[in-house]
Design brief:
mainly alpha, 2 domains, two-stranded antiparallel sheet
């Protein structure tokens, strides 16, 4: 097994057969033939000439999430969670930064992920790293650290 430049594991045919023989379920695994061009939907995944940015943009369009999340006006939703003018200003500032980086689909997906975790009673961490400086992520309940209370600068996260 090797990893490509995007961190995806690539297995040889023999390695795949060994995995199957070990009884590991691969029914939800995407397996590409040697002639990847025959698989229209994922041909971009295999193109070695894609930059990391092109790879991200291509795959953001293919994220699985229900239609209601794909169509969610995420900015309006987040702003509706704000209780004060100060929260509105902070979320507005951050949303502009997310929009400039074309990350609204990421926010939609995070909303879907948090909802799914809650529905299934899955516990996740309180937050870590620079992500806790984002008040938008706090409002989406991705983490539990109120960055406004602790006066954390969002530029630490969205550089």
């Amino acid at each position: 097994m090797i990893k490509d430049k995007f961190g995806q594991h690539i297995y040889s045919e023999d390695e795949i057969l060994d995995i199957i023989m070990q009884g590991i379920d691969i029914s939800k695994t995407t397996i590409l033939s040697a002639d990847a061009s025959s698989v229209e939907n994922i041909v971009h995944y295999c193109e070695p000439d894609l930059s990391l940015e092109e790879f991200d943009l291509t795959n953001q369009k293919n994220w699985f999430m229900p239609k209601k999340y794909k169509e969610l006006d995420i900015a309006e939703y987040i702003l509706s969670l704000c209780n004060t003018q100060h929260e509105l200003q902070r979320c507005g500032q951050e949303l502009l930064m997310y929009q400039d980086r074309n990350l609204f689909n990421l926010l939609r997906y995070l909303k879907y992920l948090v909802d799914t975790l809650k529905e299934n009673n899955v516990i996740w961490g309180v937050g870590r790293g620079s992500s806790v400086s984002s008040y938008v992520l706090y409002k989406l309940e991705v983490h539990k650290v109120d960055s406004m209370f602790y006066n954390l600068d969002v530029s630490e996260f969205l550089r």
